[in-house]
Amino acid sequence: MRNGKLRHRIRLEVPIKEQDDATGEDVITGYQELATVWASFEPLSARDLVAAQAAKSQITARIVTRYREGLSATMRAVHRGQVYSVHGVLTDPKSGREYVTLPVSEGVRNG
């Protein structure tokens, strides 16, 4: 991956969970910064967006950054003040350790 494509600063955040006294379930009470990384932020093209909507997907963009440990679909990403939910962590097809693609949607999912 070429460094020139990684021109956006993306803040990756992990959920802070606490147990609800009434139900005993884990509840997200906030988010904590994991890292701020250089990445490529790519809104889906019109064609990709139509295909995603046809498949009932909410994905609106993808974030591509260098590989790092600890990324998961429970995270969220912040780009230019806009919050995005991460829907998965896709490693590169060659080595699996060069870069990752994070399909994202605007807003935050519950849970």
From TrEMBL:
Lineage: superkingdom: Bacteria
Pfam families assigned: Phage_HCP (PF05521)
InterPro entries linked to this entry: Phage_SPP1_head-tail_adaptor, SSP1_head-tail_sf
NCBIfam families from the UniProt entry: gp16_SPP1
Protein name: Head-tail adaptor protein
